[in-house]
Amino acid sequence: MPKTLIGLLTGVSALAIGLTQAMAQEPKEIGIPDSEYSLEALIEAAKKEAPITVIDATGKIVSMAENFSKKYGLKATGVKMSGQDQEQVIAREATAGNVRTDVFNMSNLPSVTSQILPQGHGVSWLAPDLKDKIPAAYQSPAITSNNPWVFAYNTDIHGEACPVSNLWALTTGEWKGRVAIPDPLLRNETMFWFNQIATHDDAAMREAYKAQFGEELKTEETSATAEWVKRLAKNKPMVTRSDTDVGPVIGAPGQEKPPIGFLSVAIFRDAKKDGYGMGICKEMKPWVGQLTPRVAVIAAGTKSPNAAKLFARFMMTEEGMAPQLGDGKISTNIEAKMPEKEVSGIAKYADLLYVNHSETAPDDFAKLQDWQDFWLQYSR
Predict the structure, then answer these.
(1) Strand 238-240 vs strand 179-182: parallel, antiparallel, or unpaired?
(2) Which backbone phi and psi does 181 adopt, to 5 degrees?
(3) Judging by DSSP bridges, how do beta strands 330-331 and 143-153 pair with one another?
(4) pTM score
(5) 10: number of Cβ within 10 Å
(6) φ, ψ (nearest 5 deg) of residue 138
């Protein structure tokens, strides 16, 4: 693992350790108890159960399920589904007492810790034999990986340097209508990020404002972050349904003034496949993007608890997470390595990403509606 990623994991662990302390739930035992656990025992118990369905926000879950099936001789079906839809599915199925989806790799950590786990819809479980490979802050709940989201630009037009080096520049007339982002109303992680910055790093946003405009920020909003969000929303960004749509908007041929985009580094693989140039805005201040954690959640009412636990364990290994590591995801398993040929090159800039303070995740969830209303007010 590159040194920057080792340092990143250490830093995230230090910041997120409060999550382990504040969010630790009284574990609900499903399947074989941990006191009787061994990998062999779990596999044998899983073989007596029905096939499972596993869900993630990336299409790579399909190949992950296939790899799992080949390895253990157990049938698993992978389904791609957005984070918000996952939350609705696990809640609806639990309420109806008709669980059809067994394992989720969920991207909305505040929703998981504030709603899904406390309400008993899902269970977080970490295999005992992996506890020495997963930093403590990632164990409760069991975080499988961190997904980097970055600001990106068209390298065919701008070459090696991003034309934007400050988040506040995206609020200026030059970039009006030229910032492509997935709809924040459909991506809670964006709203959680706004709240994180306002809560912990608003001073950095004020400093960035002064660096961009040469004067101190004056605002009637409660934070510099809120002022930035308001200006960005009023600057008519190009809103798409998902980041899959952002990449082609950035890289579309024939553009004299291509937009800046905000997307998962997984989209860089699509850019390479489709033949357009895209690069990380490595110069962007205060941050080049954000890290979003993915949490392994087992449906509390699964009819195949041991198979579900086995798949949750599989996701916490390099072998299980391999399809996503190739897309730039950063595994929480300290032994898992990102492939050298990963397309985006995010390993070089990992320490420039915003790292969430997970100990305030409940506040992110509590203020979600406020930020959604704020965005809606100024983006009309």
Answers:
(1) parallel
(2) -140, 150
(3) antiparallel
(4) 0.87
(5) 13
(6) -100, 5
